[in-house]
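Example 3.2
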Amino acid sequence: MKLNGLKVAVMLCASLIVSACGNNEEVVKTAEPVPQVEIKVGFGPSNYAVQFQESIQPILERQGYKVTPIVFSQNPMITSSMRDNEIDASISQSYAFMLDLNRLLKMDMMSVGHTATAPQSLRSKKHNSLDDVRDGMTVTLSNDPINMERGARILESLGWVTIREGAKPATFSLKDIEKGQYNLVFKDVDPAHSMRSMDDVDFAIVNGNYVVNMGEKITDGLYVEKTPDDHRVIVTIQSKDKDQQWVKDLAAAYASDEFRDYILARPMYEGFIMPKEWNPVPDQK
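Structure, written as tokens:
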């Protein structure tokens, strides 16, 4: 009788365990899955995309986000994609440019941080000194408004040109550049071709990304842009998303020690302007 009682007890316990397991399985099957948040981030062809993919993206993926970087062939495509909600953020434009685009396109973008920014530099294969400049010499500038305006400001700081009063970054053109100390000839080129164009001109203003991509140092230029705060490359979102957790996590990743250590460990970023959110901010070279 004891043996039979034991069998009954064992069978009863087994039945309860199976029943409990069955109930748990039912709960799991009927529970709603937690959706994974996807962050789509836009870039132009630049080192900013590389920085993101190698350092920022892994940080966000460890937090459970699905991260999709999208590299556009032309910068205007980035803004239109954000306006159409095809991307959530971009790392491609300066604060000054963003404000101008907000005004022109009636958008409401905002900055939530900075990345390591490549300054422009004045370079030459034909001349070894700024003192070599003469009337009639040819200078190339980027053919997109924001980078052309930045390049023209470099020339203005040297006294070579003056810039028309009221000129705006988002609509800047060669017509906004006026004679300064010298009467120069200007050519606008695709920024990606500016290094290659140096064989045919006297001087060129080159975006730092393309200097680095050619294996050269930004600091080897004849003159390196003293990049003003409003021309540093920012992390841009639409204001409607400012309270979203993914925005806070994206901003925190760019301000993180991990991203700082990634940038400082790579010689290719020598001469870049470091994010002001880093604490302490490394000395600029």
